[in-house]
């Protein structure tokens, strides 16, 4: 199976809705020119942090590609940040006495904290501009990628300052303060944003990104390198005026919210928590990939998450099928922004078929060319948030399948868990924190 190829061409297709499946149902819809079938999988549900349907303002799936403007901006941002870091370190190292050196270190940390506040405003302003239609999804992704890049550079500076502080005699910076700053900078970074920056700069191929927003929330997802990547942020689930959650309580909250993931975490390094200040990061390695869940110390709620899942671990979900002209077209239906697998086979032999695939929203009736199914007959993309039509054409044969996404598997409270296998993960996240706790399965 292959992920979505690099195609940006738009094709207008006026295709009749020949088969439809309502969200959350297992019943086939009427089909005027074919046979639509639905099959439900019983695999365990991997739950996700999402925006309530009633709060959604905008949702879209757009192809993004290399862009010289943002690419130059990102390069300039990185270079400027690195120069500033080197300049700050040089001033500190050349300080006339230890007292001046200490004040310079504290002053630099103060500046990073102030920039974190500015990034919070910039992120919220970008979401609001997208919600009001002042910017398109592309501009939103560019701004989020820029914020992500700056937050990563600021964290590198924080690490350098921590090292300089440890080398300063009779001086130390509260490790809780530094860890809290790291968690705050985490608020503005994510694997999808980082991938968007790589696409815009040409380091990664063009692909389709899912974007979903509310007044104070954001969901992003993408498929890259045979991997489904998703991140979500809900500022309405934060309470910065309160604090009191312990590391153990943060672990318990994640266990309660993600029962399938928690019950099937890896036997070693299955879960750990790092944090200080107003949030904790809980990292879980499980049978279908990795989860990074952020628990707010005030609200005791998961307010941010990132999930990384190899496509070969994704559940089949609810399969909708249309048969016509000797072709069997199947779609593993999923939730808005979820991993959508499209499969094309010969009806009699079952052999995979290589053919062109387009996907269009039913409302606009405009279809985007996804690419070809390839030798295995499969192609992956991220699911739109509303009813959509998949059209496949091979020679004189054509098959059309219209379906709706399934409901989002929202975070659980106290539900029965199901079993999964284990998977050895990798992580680029830092463990720099004043509090670290680990938990492995019994």
TrEMBL record:
- The answer to keyword Coiled coil applying to this record is yes
Taking every annotated instance into account, which residue ranges of this chain make up the domain DUF7094? 209-314
Listed InterPro entries: DUF7094 (IPR055520), DUF7096 (IPR055522), Fn3_arc (IPR056397)
Query: Low complexity: which segments have biased composition?
Result: 413-431
- Per UniProt, which keywords does this protein have? Coiled coil
Per its UniProt entry, which superkingdom is the organism in? Answer: Archaea
Q: Which residues form a coiled coil?
A: 137-164
Q: Where is this region: Disordered?
A: 409-442
Give all residue intervals belonging to the Fibronectin-III type-like domain. 319-400
Q: Looking at the keywords, is Coiled coil present?
A: yes
* DUF7096 domain boundaries: 2-203
Q: What is this protein called?
A: Uncharacterized protein
Q: What organism is recorded for this protein? A: Haloferax larsenii
């Amino acid at each position: 199976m292959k992920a979505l190829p690099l195609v940006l061409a738009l094709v207008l297709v006026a295709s009749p809705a020949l088969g439809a499946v309502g969200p959350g149902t297992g019943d086939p819809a009427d089909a005027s020119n074919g046979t639509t079938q639905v099959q439900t999988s019983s695999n365990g549900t991997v739950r996700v942090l999402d925006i309530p349907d009633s709060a959604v303002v905008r949702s879209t799936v757009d192809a993004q590609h290399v862009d010289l403007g943002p690419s130059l901006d990102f390069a300039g941002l990185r270079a400027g940040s690195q120069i500033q870091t080197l300049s700050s370190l040089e001033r500190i190292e050349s300080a006339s006495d230890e007292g001046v050196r200490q004040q310079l270190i504290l002053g630099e940390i103060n500046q990073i904290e102030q920039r974190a506040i500015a990034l919070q405003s910039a992120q919220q302003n970008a979401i609001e501009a997208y919600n009001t239609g002042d910017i398109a999804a592309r501009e939103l992704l560019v701004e989020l990628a820029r914020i992500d890049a700056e937050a990563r550079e600021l964290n590198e500076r924080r690490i350098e300052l921590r090292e300089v502080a440890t080398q300063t005699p009779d001086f130390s910076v509260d490790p809780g303060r530094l860890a809290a700053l790291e968690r705050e900078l985490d608020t503005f970074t994510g694997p999808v944003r980082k991938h968007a920056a790589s696409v815009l700069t040409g380091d990664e191929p063009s692909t389709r990104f899912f974007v979903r927003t509310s007044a104070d929330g954001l969901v992003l997802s993408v498929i890259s390198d045979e991997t489904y990547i998703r991140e979500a942020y809900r500022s309405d689930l934060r309470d910065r005026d309160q604090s009191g959650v312990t590391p153990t309580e943060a672990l318990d909250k994640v266990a309660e919210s993600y029962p399938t993931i928690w019950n099937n975490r890896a036997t070693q390094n299955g879960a750990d928590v790092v944090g200080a200040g107003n949030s904790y990061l809980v990292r879980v390695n499980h049978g279908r990939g990795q989860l990074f869940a952020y628990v707010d110390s005030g609200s005791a709620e998961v307010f941010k998450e990132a999930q990384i899942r190899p496509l070969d671990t994704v559940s089949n979900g609810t399969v909708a099928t249309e048969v016509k002209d000797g072709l069997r077209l199947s779609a593993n239906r999923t939730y808005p922004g979820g991993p959508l697998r499209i499969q094309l086979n010969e009806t009699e032999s079952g052999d995979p078929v290589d053919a062109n695939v387009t996907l269009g929203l039913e409302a606009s009736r405009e279809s985007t060319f996804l690419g070809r199914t390839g030798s295995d007959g499969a192609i992956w993309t991220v699911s739109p948030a509303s009813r959509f039509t998949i059209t496949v054409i091979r020679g004189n044969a054509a098959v059309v399948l219209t379906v709706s996404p399934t409901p989002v598997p929202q975070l659980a409270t106290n539900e029965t868990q199901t079993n999964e296998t284990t998977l050895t993960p990798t992580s680029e996240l830092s463990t720099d924190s004043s509090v670290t706790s680990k938990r492995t399965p019994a």
